[in-house]
Amino acid sequence: MTGLAEARAAIIAAGQRLDHLGWVPATAGNISVRLGDGSIAITRSGGHKGFLSDDGVIRVGLDGVPLREGDRPSAETGLHCGIYRRFAAAGAVLHGHSVPVTVLSRRLAGSIRLEGYELLKAFPGLATHQAAVALPVFENDQDIARLQDAVETRWAEEATIPPGYLLRGHGIYVWGADMPQALMRLEAVEFMLRCELEARRLS
Amino acid sequence: MTGLAEARAAIIAAGQRLDHLGWVPATAGNISVRLGDGSIAITRSGGHKGFLSDDGVIRVGLDGVPLREGDRPSAETGLHCGIYRRFAAAGAVLHGHSVPVTVLSRRLAGSIRLEGYELLKAFPGLATHQAAVALPVFENDQDIARLQDAVETRWAEEATIPPGYLLRGHGIYVWGADMPQALMRLEAVEFMLRCELEARRLS
Amino acid sequence: MTGLAEARAAIIAAGQRLDHLGWVPATAGNISVRLGDGSIAITRSGGHKGFLSDDGVIRVGLDGVPLREGDRPSAETGLHCGIYRRFAAAGAVLHGHSVPVTVLSRRLAGSIRLEGYELLKAFPGLATHQAAVALPVFENDQDIARLQDAVETRWAEEATIPPGYLLRGHGIYVWGADMPQALMRLEAVEFMLRCELEARRLS
Amino acid sequence: MTGLAEARAAIIAAGQRLDHLGWVPATAGNISVRLGDGSIAITRSGGHKGFLSDDGVIRVGLDGVPLREGDRPSAETGLHCGIYRRFAAAGAVLHGHSVPVTVLSRRLAGSIRLEGYELLKAFPGLATHQAAVALPVFENDQDIARLQDAVETRWAEEATIPPGYLLRGHGIYVWGADMPQALMRLEAVEFMLRCELEARRLS
Lengths: 203, 203, 203, 203
Description:
CATH architecture of chain A: 3-Layer(aba) Sandwich
Oligomer: homotetramer
Strand content of chain A: 15-25%
Number of helices of chain A: 5
Number of domains of chain A: 1
EC number (chains A, B, C, D): 4.2.1.109
Family (chains A, B, C, D): Belongs to the aldolase class II family. MtnB subfamily.
Organism (chains A, B, C, D): Belnapia mucosa
CATH class of chain A: Alpha Beta
Order of helices and strands of chain A: HEEEHEHEEHEEH
Shape of chain A: globular
Pathway (chains A, B, C, D): Amino-acid biosynthesis; L-methionine biosynthesis via salvage pathway; L-methionine from S-methyl-5-thio-alpha-D-ribose 1-phosphate: step 2/6
Radius of gyration of chain A: 16 Å
InterPro entries (chains A, B, C, D): Aldolase_class_II_sugar_metab, Aldolase_II/adducin_N, Aldolase_II/adducin_N_sf, MethylthioRu-1-P_deHdtase_MtnB
């Protein structure tokens, strides 16, 4: 059972790791963890995610409503909660902005296909590098409720839902059973996307 | 009200952050903060901005003249003061040199247009990613007074003035209400410019 | 004679160095050292190699079988042991995943040829930059025993065997007499491969 | 007057800085300082320059001969001493290997021309960005005495000698009046060479 103190520490450390990797520029990105009581600990709106303090993390219900009046959670709280509602096994969600995600999502529509990479083994159900994963790419939208509808519509269409998706010109969402797994999956996807970007440059 | 000690600490920390990000190579770059008494704390001429000490930060008036005789402020003090005179809300100014800024400014004349990026929300008055920002690009000039005239002429022409501009083959100026906002805006712009540079390489 | 405690410390430090260099993303990579008693200390399966603790390193025999029942060594233990069996002088083996290795191995079949680099002097028997080294590239394979067979077949064919090879879309194996030499050789190869990748992009 | 202890500390710190910047991979690179007594403190042969200890720095005469019998100075000591003999004002010499230096030197013969960069002001005698600097590129050579002859021949031909040169496929030499100036000049040149490399990739 994850308590608030433990979740805060995990979120603060994750923010430092993501900043070290260059994936939370400016005040971009957001990070959350599902608590044992079913609520969600999530980064507050604004603020640099590489330099979080305890009060930079607040609690919301599965509906996204802050448990303490006056708290302003991340603008994209609805996307985090949508993941926790749909996937009972999801325990942590990471949202970052990297250059490969931003550049590739602006060029590709519908999905980004990754195949032939050893690191695909980071995805559930894929024990070899010979499978392929198609990460959905959604149009960016400031109306988060509408964006979450689009995400859920796509999820309903897919037989297998990979634990991540991209928002065009914006960033990537990745989740896992806990923070270490979410971080591991994000690192794996970001690595493969950097390879994709590099490969598209070669003469 | 920002006092000198607080401003020095903020400038030293900002220099370390900019060096960590690779944006103050050699002795390039300069950093300033507006103090409560209306004077400006600014980095001294020369010296590596990633390794500032207290005596690496001096005070000048809004006219750029050092308040202590013999102090040599940054060569580009006139550009900082020009920003503080024109924008009453400006509390901190950052000047850095990055590879994307240098390479893109050498290829593009007049301005660099950024659109479709979520991080455009870092700019005042833009609540969505669907707007565009055109950052002015000025020809470099060792005559700082003449360069500031060119900057003010452009500002007089624009209905909306973005909180930043580029100097060809030189670097970028970004400002904000305080140091955290200035750093946040610089990180956002640098991120988008890296994306622009990467996108221009793809086959 | 290398004891277990010394080997663990070397492996943990190497993992931190490789993570600093970005070569062990997610849970990728593995690291081993030959002990004085002939057994092999190797990273446990799973786990991020940049954040190893003492219990992240276990012992196996030269046949790859864990010396303590229940321990799960790295999935690729067979490749490490194959190197130690073939090369009596090998004292440390490093396996990492870098973007240049991944991208270049996906484009080139058979081998990657490096010549004209001063850093080729890192390879045994090459005292000048005027020689060339051809690093084998093998098809990736989840059947490690079969993959090791392919590696040994190639070794049997070559007059000179360079102390490394690539796995397509996967990563690189490099070895040396001890951890410092293995790290030095890996840094040298990764540097040259980055140069190769950059050179292939130029117009 | 620089003493040995001070020189060692400067060299160790410079090595850490160069490693942080990725410019001393494997055991590449070497660093030296001219001491008050006219001798030269220089890094020992072999060893990673990012992790120097006091005994990694030894003393040689201006002729390159170790002052303590048995010491093995850097293989390229002759190039350092050639700089100190030719330029009485040279107090520190840095030699590093970066990807831009290696890739560009393999493509360009004779010299690399840098112009229009603000950072050209790091070079002596250039107070504006409107000048140009041509950094010589020499063919690599394991015979250091012969290589130094080629360097001195070129120096004799030039009216103005920039404080640096490149060795094809190998690395760069930069010097200054002291370690801070040498580091500043190296950072400036490496920045401009990265810009050159990036510019050559754009469509």
